[in-house]
Amino acid sequence: MKAPQSLDALVVGAGFGGIYQLKLLLDQRLSVKVIDIAGDVGGTWYWNQYPGAMSDTESFLYRYSWDHEDLRNYPWNRHYLQGPEILAYLRHVVKRHEMRKHFQFNTELTKAVWDDSEGRWTVETSTGDVFKPKYLVTALGLLSKQNLPNIPGLNSFKGDIHHTARWPKGLDLRGKRVGVIGNGSTGVQVITAIAKDVKELVCFQRTPQYSVPSGDREVDPAYREDLNEKYAEVWAKAKESLFAFGFEESSRPTFSVSDEEREKIFEEAWQKGGGFRFMFWTFCDISYDEAANKAAADFIRRKISEIVKDPETARKLQPTDYHARRPLCDSGYYQQFNRPNVDLVDLKATPIVEITPNGIELSDGHICELDVIVFATGFDAVDGNYTRVAIQGRNGRSLKEHWADVGPTSYLGISVPDFPNMFMVLGPNGPFTNLPPTIETQVEFIADLIETAEESSTKGELADGLVSNGHPNGQLNGHSNGHVNGHNSTQTIEKKSGSQRVIEATPEAEQEWTELCDKLSANSLFRKTDSWIFGSNVEGKKPSVLFYFGGLANYRKALRDVVQNGLKGFR
Q: What fold does the segment set 5-145+381-491+500-564 form as a domain?
């Protein structure tokens, strides 16, 4: 084992969260390293390089807000970004801010143990490197741990098997017989992208999805010029909205308008594009009122019938449950089922019996002969990446053990009691909102917590490890750049000798936040629908509340309340 390396902070994960966390901690003049099992930066976009991979957030918000010059000048020519473009953007940010030397790739966290006597973490890795940071920040991503169904005969297949989250570079599917298992966001994207190229495409569908057009198109230069003039305002509005997707959410109930007006509003949203826009820009009650939800669902079902020519295929594609999974959008998904080379298998009518050497056998005895099987079966979301590794807090108790009885819990989606100086980006019970604005909010809050602890230990100001109003000029108090958690990138911390402080959530704060998240989701139709949002997509996993459903604006208000009340909930 190599000699341990002492650090101020170790960040695990090199995606959107890890990159920005590194930037802020370097600005605080701390010694920081980022490790990632991947071979480069990118996070989920490093791994998910399947055909059709696309963000469903419009391009103007799927980036960082804190580099205003780059916001205005970095090129993008379509309203939605493809996966390779996002990967290139993140590499550009790392290069632009000269951060690459602080990353260590092909390095997996295998064990992390807190030592009370040292006030540090001991982190072991797959490379044999051992790090001893004061602060451990985990930016593992919401959707990282693959969910691979246990289907009999999986290892007998003579062709190629791939999960979309581990797509091999250069894979050529042209002329192949391909089966895609799964039709969530990823399945919809990959099916749409490959249908025109493969010899045969068999889509194995367990649950039909509600999907609307993305509305992707080329960007008008005048649109970009106007956006550049008001970018700061656009981002400020997004961070003070419910879902932060860049549109104004509706306050209008579904049945407050006539049938004709309602149809017109749905049609306008369909033409504009965007899954979240269709659900939350149209009317305010689709996610919690059953009648309103049915009205929206009926509209999409009618659209499917209009698009898909074969009535039986259209029937199979029409969902029958609530429109209450993650809102999807596509670039022509339903149209692919009009192609003569595309077939649809309803797995509820004819389940998979086993995978054979030559393909997939169904319950009616039919064998779908295939050359390639693609698993678009999603992820063990939110907590999956945390429970698969040994992260041990006080007294050797692991996160997996901490969450064993009641499911994944935290305070603010960031901190867990008895795991001192450990902070999660997008941890359990963080906001169910657009990710880049949410990531920025949490990363800035974590940077403030660390800066507060550092000032506490170097200057001896804090008897209890808390402050009354946050540190001077810090993110938590707001700053002139327009962020609620605005960052002062020029501040220098003068290091002095002193005792090392630790900071962590209290059990009472964790319980209160867990109860709030449970209460906020209680009336949501999302909770009444099986999906990864509540962990019900993984076989054997107990469904639980995984998100804060109060929206980003209210979440940011909660963070301000924490600061204004002396870091309430932390000790």
A: FAD/NAD(P)-binding domain (3.50.50)
